[in-house]
Amino acid sequence: MTATMTKTPPPAAPKAAKAGKRRLSLPVILLIIAAALALVSVVRIITGQGQLTAEGQISAALGLAVPIGLAGLAGLWSERSGVVNIGLEGMMILGTFFGAWAGWQSSPWIGVLTGILGGMLGGLVHAIATVTFGVDHIVSGVAINILALGATQYLAKLWFNTGDAATKGGNPKQSPPIDSLPTITVPGLSSWLHDIEQHGWFFVSDLAGILGGFVTDLSVLTILAALLFVGSFFVLWRTSFGLRLRSCGENPIAAESLGVNVYLYKYIAVIISGGLAGLGGAFLAMVPSHIYLEGQTGGRGYIGLAAMIFGNWRVGGLATGAGLFGYADALQLRNGGPTVHALLLLLVVLLAALAAWKLWKKSYIQGVISAVMAGLVLLWFLTTDQVPDDFVGATPYVVTLLVLSLSAQRLRMPKADGMRYRKGQGK
Question: Is the distance from CB of 63 to CB of 322 less than 8 angstroms?
Fold first, then answer.
């Protein structure tokens, strides 16, 4: 009896996993930046609003973007570990108060360090409430905001309204003046870029104005903030520590089963988050105003969260969002209605491009809505000379809402973000 050998067909090759979205290469990113700058340059020439890309505008935008960016970076650290941090506003308030309190008595550098410690204290309270006791993250964050506001108002009356502080200009709503931190201007390069900007050339002068804002009267805290952004990217995405921390925000049960001390990593992340928010608050007290003022944060903690969401919980996108919000804030502060009015034309172009993109993707409802909005904004631009003052003051908040509404569909938060975790679930 002979056995018949039957050939079995080789196993089918597994289908390739569906490729994720391709990341933009550096040349493509540079091309997008150049196209955006060219568009802004065209708007500047049409409207005659040179402030759109002026050195002073960029310098002011950078100063306003730093505290927003630090608040967003604080939120990034916390939420990557799975803890939602709505208390960023309160931690920034603690940073402004304690930074100013220590800064006027000793040196601004001691004030910066004390502001960081004040924010870390708020982060520690949030970590104890959410990680150890399992309090709802939103409830804990809102409570910290309320407590920080109330505590600083009480301490300001106690510390700034009596004794030596009162004689030096303190009162229940502000601290005595604080010495300035050093600033850096690149000699030669700054004046050369300023000369090119004054010619008003298409694209070249705009590029010179933007670069000039980065090399003129730059605070050392701004440089420190930039280094913190780079360092945060390296630590969170290029080290084993960062991988373990992010795993706590994605799947803490799996992380614990692999030996990760989830509680410890969450505590570290939230305390670092508080320190970064405190540094953002200290920046507000030390750099733009050299004084603590009640209500100084002005909702920047919440705008920082919006920048983090716009950036899809990533460092690069967060920096872009912070820069956008800082730029919008600087526009309404420096030149008001006429300059913000020029932005309407830029908004028309962006909405028209969005409408074309949505229609091409066969998202007809969204495409039509974007086209109608573009037409209405264009009509507004053509029939007015400047934006009303009431609207000008709301510019950064309107930009925040627009950016979040347009970017909401591509967002992906950490899977376990905001979820209650109890030790031992992975066993």
Answer: no
Please check whether residue 291 is in contact with residue 101, taking contact to mean a CB–CB distance below 8 angstroms.
Answer: no
* Contact call for residues 327 and 65 (beta carbons, < 8 A): yes
Question: Helices 240-250 and 55-80 meet at what angle, rounded to 10?
Answer: 70
Q: Which residues contact 124 (CB under 8 A, 6 or more apart)?
A: 267, 270, 271, 274
174-201 burial, b at 16+ Cβ within 10 Å, e below that, comes to: bbbbbeebeeeeeeeebeebbebbeeee
Instruction: Render pLDDT for 129-148 as a digit per residue (tens, 0 to 9).
Output: 999 999 999 999 999 999 99
Residue-level pLDDT at 14 = 44
* Among candidate residues 34, 378, 400, the one with its CA nearest the CA of residue 42: 34
Strands (E), 131-224: 183-184, 218-219
CA distance 373 to 236: 40
Q: Please write the tens of the pLDDT for every residue from 331-384.
A: 877 766 788 888 888 888 888 888 898 899 888 888 898 899 889 989 988 998
Burial of 362 (0-12, 13-18, 19+ CB in 10 A): exposed
Write the DSSP string, 29-61: HHHHHHHHHHHHHHHHHHH--GGGG-HHHHHHH
Question: Could you tell me which of 324, 343, 326, 320 has the C-alpha nearest to residue 391?
Answer: 343
Helices then strands (H, E): number in the chain? Answer: 18, 2
CA angle (37, 328, 43) in 5-degree steps: 35
Q: What would the mean pLDDT of 224-229 be, rounded to a whole number?
A: 96
Give the C-alpha separation, 146 to 93, whole Å: 10
Collect all residues with Cβ–Cβ distance below 8 Å to 285 and sequence separation of at least 6. Answer: 95, 96, 97, 99, 100, 103, 111, 115, 175, 178, 291, 292, 296
Mean pLDDT of 43-68: 90
Quick check: helix, strand or coil at residue 295?
A: coil
For 355-417, the DSSP string reads HHHHHHTT-HHHHHHHHHHHHHHHHHHHH-SS--HHHHHTHHHHHHHHHHHHHGGG----TTT
| Nearest residue to 256 (alpha-carbon basis) of 391, 40, 427 | 427
- Tokens for 278? 């405190």
- Residue 160, pLDDT > 80, answer yes
Query: Which residue stretches of 199-258 are H helix?
Result: 204-213, 220-238, 240-250, 252-257
Among 243-257, 262-276, 287-301, 407-421, name the one with the lowest average pLDDT: 407-421
